[in-house]
Amino acid sequence: MPTIVVDVMPKPEILDPQGKAIAGALPRLGFTAFEQVRQGKRFELHVEGEVTDQILEQARTAAAELLSNPVIEDVVNVAVLDESEASA
Amino acid sequence: MPTIVVDVMPKPEILDPQGKAIAGALPRLGFTAFEQVRQGKRFELHVEGEVTDQILEQARTAAAELLSNPVIEDVVNVAVLDESEASA
User: Fold this and answer.
1) What CATH number is attached to the domain comprising B45?
2) Which value does ipTM take for this structure?
3) Measured between CA atoms, how close is B62 to chain A, in angstroms?
4) pLDDT tens-digit series, residues B29-78
5) Residue B46: how many other CB atoms lie within 10 Å
6) A28 in a domain, yes or no?
7) Is B1's CB within 8 Å of A36's CB?
């Protein structure tokens, strides 16, 4: 089934306590390569049939209106998923 | 700053109540193109300097050991982000 991926991240100027907690935990577990971590959301929207431009536009609108909170979050990506990368 | 993206999704056989709630809300808002929705997580790991194979391997291990719960989640993607797509 074709899948549209929507990625939502906290805006750069917004504090991200989950990301901070992970950034603190990583070096304690031996992962020292990472300076900063941000945690956001990834949505997979499954579409019956083909992904038309109209459906992709619907996904963009849904991303802006329902899947993200524009006060604190940015929609960083809306794209059709490569089948090889699909999780379901 | 180079960024590694880690995408984590609930396993297909695991119930995803957030995804179900979104799938229920979309048609009420006029978005009728989507059959199923899954909600997962997206992590951005910021790296000082260049992303070497060793750092990418560290990110893969961290994704499996810290960023995901292997009982209920799959790491679906670990990749270096295109600068053009970066949110921070």
Assistant:
1) 3.30.1280.10
2) 0.91
3) 7
4) 999 999 999 999 999 999 999 999 999 999 999 999 999 999 999 999 99
5) 19
6) no
7) yes
Does residue B55 lie in a domain region?
yes
Contact B45, B87 (CB under 8 A): no
- Dig out the tokens for A54 from the structure: 């109209």
* CB within 8 Å: B43 and A22: yes
The amino acid at B69: N
Note whether A44 and A62 are within 8 A (CB): no
* Residues of B in Cβ contact (< 8 Å) with A44: 9, 19, 37-40
User: A33 in a domain, yes or no?
Assistant: no
Domain count for chain B, please give it.
1
Question: Which residue range(s) make up the domain with A69?
Answer: 3-13+40-85
Q: Classify residue A53: in a domain, yes or no.
A: yes
- What is the CA A34 to chain-centroid distance, rounded? 19
Taking CB atoms and an 8 Å cutoff, what residues of chain B touch A45?
Answer: 34, 36-37
How many CA atoms are closer than 13 Å to the CA of B10, on its beta-carbon side? 16
